[in-house]
Amino acid sequence: MRSEHVIGGTAMSVSAKFELNEHQVDMPVKDGTIGPSVVDIAKLYGQTGMFTFDPGFTSTASCESKITYIDGDEGILLHRGYPIEQLAENGDFLETCYLLLYGELPTAAQKADFVHHITRHTMVHEQMMRFFQGFRRDAHPMAVMVASVGALSAFYHDSTDISDPTQRMIASMRMVAKMPTLAAMAYKYSIGQPFVYPQNDLDYTSNFLRMCFAVPCEDYQVNPVLSKALDRIFILHADHEQNASTSTVRLAGSSGANPFACIAAGIACLWGPAHGGANEAALKMLEEIGTVDRIPQFIARAKDKNDPFRLMGFGHRVYKNYDPRAKIMQKTTHDVLKAVGSKDPLLDVAVELERIALTDEYFVERKLYPNIDFYSGITLKAMGFPTSMFTVLFALARTVGWIAQWKEMIEDPGQKIGRPRQLYTGYAKREYVPTNKR
Ligand code: SDX
After folding, report:
1. What was the pLDDT predicted at 136?
2. Radius of gyration from C-alpha coordinates of the chain
3. What backbone torsions phi and psi does residue 110 show, to the nearest 5 degrees?
4. Of 32, 98, 308, 380, which shows the fewest CB atoms inside 10 Å?
């Protein structure tokens, strides 16, 4: 029950009353700028001896944040208050990076200074080349990214003192700047081609495309349409509130671990097919379906509780409306396919699958709309990336969101180590049984 105290006509909710057995407990209610209020249950255990229970955190706010706001019912995504559609339409990825890290859109001078610093942190320590030699060539690039990003802390001891604001910002810039270089190295290593060094006269995303697709034997010209499209894809993936990988980064950071290790933990979590691995899984699903006439049998499998098959790229824990990023992604797909002059038959399968899913009662009832991963696979494949690189690109873009959320957590004066409790359903205490009596 929620008690409200009205001051001057504005309802200011102050507490939620809980009746637990003989306990009557008042918990303070906190209101945000927009979006759901929260019941602060920090004192619940102390007052009642009971925990709350919320596996998957479907109704739990883990922190207070000013970075990203999502309204799943309305399909709204704001970064520091700016709609994703406007950021994707009017700005570029490094502008969004500045906004997420500093909280405001940069002036022209601030943007130029930020780009200058990012550009001059794009090289990695030359020893990293030897680090890569330890991997099998057929290692999944995400495995390489988890390891190599974690290894960055072995090279940059001068920016791992998280109590120093200057070192926190240097580490943040280094992470944003070096991810494209490491991602391109992971790709080159997997195809047996030599690494390509960053080139400072290129913009962030063109530099990445060149490091991926240039070879020493000939000049490489970046296609500006593809660079602009990939830069927009990076904007769409930059941050997304307290998703699984961001929560992983926050929890790792809450122990005081260095930022490189925390980002490596985020990459590991993103790899899962239910999260960032869905773009790779979605394309594999479209390839398995193959043709439009085979869609009905896969729709039936997706509905079958006894079949683990799910429509990858559909559904979302928060969005119960169309993922606003998916709409922009779909348009980008058409731009890229036109630029490369290819007509991917899988796009026909994707469009028909979406049409059916948006009319089928099972998906409509469960509000399962396409999410950002549904179209990204087709787009990245058209750009020339192998399926195994899709989640690497997601991690590249999400690094700025992870690091911004990590900084916000570290700079929160109320920050403490995260340590959830549990509902224990195992054995109560019992005596040890010697082997000869078992
Ligand atoms: C990302 O959190 C974020 O913000 C993530 C992300 C980000 O930017 O960080 O947006 C990126 O991870 C996007 C999501 C990518 N994952 C996929 O596309 C994988 C396929 N989607 C599902 O695995 C699922 O929809 C989740 C994991 C995304 C969400 O799962 P929930 O919220 O836990 O929902 P649920 O599993 O409880 O499903 C609710 C119902 C169930 O049916 P019932 O038991 O109620 O009968 O919907 C069904 C599910 O079986 N369902 C699906 C389905 N997704 C959910 N059925 C078929 N196909 C699907 N894709």
Report:
1. 97
2. 24
3. -65, -40
4. 308
Three-state SS at 17: strand
CA 201 to ligand 1 center in whole angstroms: 42
Task: Collapse the DSSP code of 314 into the 3-class scheme (helix H, G, I; strand E, B; otherwise coil) and give the result.
Answer: strand
Distance (Å, rounded) from C-alpha 204 to C-alpha 65?
28
Q: Which residues of 158-169 are buried (b: 16+ CB within 10 A; e: fewer)?
A: ebbebeeeebbb
- pTM flag (> 0.90): yes
- Given a cut of 80, is residue 231 above it in pLDDT? yes
Q: Which two tokens stand for residue 426?
A: 């195992």
- Per DSSP, the three-state class of 11 is strand
203 labelled catalytic? no
Helices (H), 59-126: 84-90, 93-102, 108-119
Name 119's Cβ contacts closer than 8 Å, sequence gap at least 6: 177, 198, 200, 204, 207
Alpha-carbon distances of 61 from 12, 77, 196, 226, 247, rounded to whole Å: 20, 17, 43, 38, 11
pLDDT of residue 106: 98
Residue 373 annotated as catalytic: yes
Q: Which atom of ligand 1 is nearest to the CA of 317?
A: 32
Q: How many Cβ atoms from other residues are within 10 Å of residue 355's Cβ?
A: 11
Cα–Cα nearest to 53, from 386, 372, 407, 424: 424
- The SS3 call for residue 282 is helix
Question: Could you tell me if the CB of 404 is within 6 A of ligand 1?
Answer: no
Buried b (16+ CB within 10 A) or exposed e, 29-41: beeeeeeeebbeb
Q: Is the pLDDT of residue 10 over 70?
A: no
pLDDT higher than threshold 70 for residue 11: no
| pLDDT greater than 50 at residue 6 | no
pLDDT above 70: residue 12: no
Average the pLDDT over 89-101 and give the result. Answer: 98
